[in-house]
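Good morning,

Attaching, inline, the backbone tokens for the sequence recovery test we're adding to the shared suite. The designed sequence is right after.
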């Protein structure tokens, strides 16, 4: 049986039990939401042991390179040490798309996790389709779980901007990355 080290505790998984189910069965404080790999709420980082290779298509190449896994999609075959992901990259949900003008839209993104960023700092937003662009933060909620950006569409602009203005909908999922 694989042994998991997570948040200062050890957990044993039953044979054929996925990582999230095993952690929750033993009352670990593991984050989760959809249980389908879409929301990325259950994303964890492997710090020791062999990263399972299941369900990599649900993560970006950069996330896989950094050792991230989705607990709800992972069958563990060996011992692992895990941590929560760093707060410089978190999943987000578009909660508001408000047109300001014909070329500008105010976008609000809920991260569901506190995200350490300040007004004026730049973040990168990445769509599920892999489109990405960098924008300054123009607003923050008090709990730091919702941030706002103004996205301008221009001729020859970024594909992400075109997507936000023409295809994006409230409820779409994004990755939010803090730029160093």
């Amino acid at each position: 049986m694989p042994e998991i080290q997570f948040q200062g505790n050890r957990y044993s998984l039953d044979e054929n039990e996925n990582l999230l189910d095993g952690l929750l069965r033993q009352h670990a404080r593991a984050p989760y939401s959809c249980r389908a790999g879409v929301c990325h709420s259950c994303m964890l980082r492997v710090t020791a042991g062999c990263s399972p290779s299941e369900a990599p298509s649900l993560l970006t190449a950069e996330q896989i390179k950094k050792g991230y896994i989705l607990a709800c999609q992972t069958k563990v075959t060996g011992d692992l040490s895990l941590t929560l992901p760093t707060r410089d990259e978190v999943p987000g949900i578009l909660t508001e798309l408000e047109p300001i003008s014909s070329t500008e839209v105010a976008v609000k993104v809920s991260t569901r996790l506190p995200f350490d960023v300040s007004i004026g700092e730049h973040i990168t937003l990445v769509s599920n389709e892999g489109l990405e662009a960098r924008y300054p933060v123009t607003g923050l909620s008090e709990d730091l779980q919702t941030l706002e950006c103004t996205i301008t569409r221009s001729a020859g602009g970024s594909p992400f901007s075109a997507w936000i203005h023409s295809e994006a909908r409230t409820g779409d999922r994004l990755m939010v990355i803090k730029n160093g």
